[in-house]
Amino acid sequence: MKQLIVIIGPNGVGKTTTAKKIVEQYENVAYVDSDWCRVMNPFVFSESTKETIMENIYCLLRNYLSCSDVNKVVFTYAWHGERKEIYERVIEKLKKDHIEFKQTIIVLKCSRDENIKRAMKDGRDEIRIKRGMEMTFSFYDDFDYPCIDTTDMTPATVAQQIVNLVDSNL
């Protein structure tokens, strides 16, 4: 069965960097970066753009999960705000369309100081970093999914832990 590896966590925690390292460790794997599903200027989170974002994510995941040459799909996404609802609608639509897959959801976290340092390294401005710390940093504390504290880990080490976790659940 196809495997959907979903990496969630606060802004700037390292989801994208980790996902790229996971892709290097598997064969027959695809990566969907949710950031590219919502790039527009100006970005307005309206009903119309939410629908577009959902369709963009759905189409990419459906296409990869339906591809005979792909066994695993890595998907990075943040669930704060209305994004979790969008994700749930995508998953519901995939299941309704009889796309078979097993999903593994993993939360990435790190210390507050490390999260700020990483966000700065990514070129995020001070206002965006502050907003991220207020809105997303603690949001993932109550989810009951495997959680990896990435504070003192390299992206390759985090990726290897995820690979081990996914492979042990097959």
Annotation keywords:
single chain, 170 residues, alpha/beta, Rossmann fold, five-stranded parallel sheet, 6 helices, 46% helix
Question: How would you describe this protein?
Answer:
By secondary structure, this protein is α/β, with parallel strands linked by helices. It has a single domain, classed as P-loop containing nucleotide triphosphate hydrolases (Rossmann fold, 3-Layer(aba) Sandwich), CATH 3.40.50.300. Helix content is 46%, strand content 16%. The chain is built from six helices and five strands; from the N terminus they run βαβαβαβααβα. It has a five-stranded parallel beta sheet, sandwiched between helices. Helix 2 links the parallel strand 2 and strand 3. Helix 1 crosses helix 6 and helix 2 packs across helix 3. The longest helix has 20 residues. 31% of the residues are buried. The mean pLDDT is 90.
Task: Set out the fold topology.
Layout: E1 3-8, H1 15-25, E2 29-33, H2 47-66, E3 72-76, H3 83-96, E4 102-109, H4 112-121, H5 126-135, E5 147-149, H6 155-168
Parallel strand pairs: 1-3, 1-4, 2-3, 4-5
**β-strand amount:** 15-25%
Mean pLDDT: 90
Look at the helices and sheets and give the structural class. Answer: alpha/beta
Task: Examine the coordinates and then state which fold CATH places here, giving the name of the CATH topology.
Answer: Rossmann fold
CATH superfamily: P-loop containing nucleotide triphosphate hydrolases
> What is the alpha-carbon Rg in Å?
16 Å
Shape: globular
